[in-house]
Amino acid sequence: MPKVLNTVILTFALAVSTMLPKTGEAWAQVRKDVSEFAGERCNTPPRGSGVVVGQFSGVDDSPFVSGGDGRVPITRFRCFASMEECKGWLYTMQSKYSNAGPPSLVRCDVR
Description:
4-stranded antiparallel sheet; alpha+beta
């Protein structure tokens, strides 16, 4: 009986591990051709609308203060037609606005 139980547990663990997304693969498939200005400006859509909402908050170096002492907050809220486009937009935003520090909010949600 213990041998059968071990086989069942091992089979279940293997099945579950193949269904879960791998973190490296999830970001490897992100579109990298999405503009910083992609999506549409919008207010928060109602829940159940199916609209994909992207949020980004970070900082950038100020063009007016030299030496890295000046920080400018960058906050964007955009609506997208697909999750793929939203994740591509977040990739672009993180690539463009991460030199002054890590972003504080990076998120795509379906409303």
